[in-house]
Specification:
Layout: H1 2-10, E1 12-28, E2 31-41, E3 48-55, E4 69-74, E5 82-84
Length: 87
């Protein structure tokens, strides 16, 4: 989780469309770990697909449904590293 927080603070902002999501079967403090298939839409570059796993607050689950567009941060050195920016 610390890596995701660092990425949120320093990463390149982008939008991502949620194509698919599924529960991994893991929880932390009653919050599910969810795997997402995202279409990342970086500014000035072609969209690409990536998978991301993260814990999602049960209160935020309505925000992260397939078809929704959410804010993400992309690692500036490795575009496969992505964090959901659910502030």
């Amino acid at each position: 989780m610390a890596q995701a927080q660092t990425l949120i603070a320093t990463g390149e902002p982008a939008q991502a469309k949620i194509l698919r999501m599924w529960d991994t079967g893991t929880t932390l403090n009653d919050n599910p770990k969810v795997k997402f298939l995202l279409e990342i839409q970086p500014s000035g570059r072609a969209p690409y697909q990536a998978e991301v796993k993260c814990y999602v607050s049960r209160l935020r689950l309505p925000q992260v449904q397939p078809g929704n567009v959410i804010a993400v941060k992309i690692d500036r050195q490795d575009a496969t590293k992505i964090a959901l920016d659910l502030v």
